[in-house]
Here is the input.
Amino acid sequence: MQKSIFTLEYPLKSASTNFLWTKIGSPLGLSEWFADEVSSEDSKYVFKWEEFQQSARLLELKPNKSIRFQWLDDLDTSAYFEFRIDTQELTGEVTLVITDFAWEDEKEDAILLWNYQVDELKRIAGM
Here is the structure.
């Protein structure tokens, strides 16, 4: 049995893409809402939450568009997590799209956690 992919979309109508990129595309930005502390060296990122720490490798970076990581625990799988900024051309509305993988029995908890994390992002953005 493998983890299954899921995608979540969070409309952030009043966010600028530049602001959003600073929050998803850098260790400092990620440490403001996603983890307590984030550090990176080359393509390895270390995410810390209180007493818990998890490492990931950077798989893909498209500046001002998307960033994709893979937890080191998932190296032998196709699992990853990605933050992507989508902008509607006609309206200019911005959406944060998060793609992740979870075990079927943990998917609901993963979605609740992402909802909480994005609420934190909205809070620091003043939304």
Observations:
- Residues 4-20+59-125 form a domain with the Alpha-D-Glucose-1,6-Bisphosphate; Chain A, domain 4 fold (CATH 3.30.530.20).
- The helical segments are 17-24, 27-30, 107-125.
- The first strand starts at residue 4 and ends at 11.
- The radius of gyration is 14 Å.
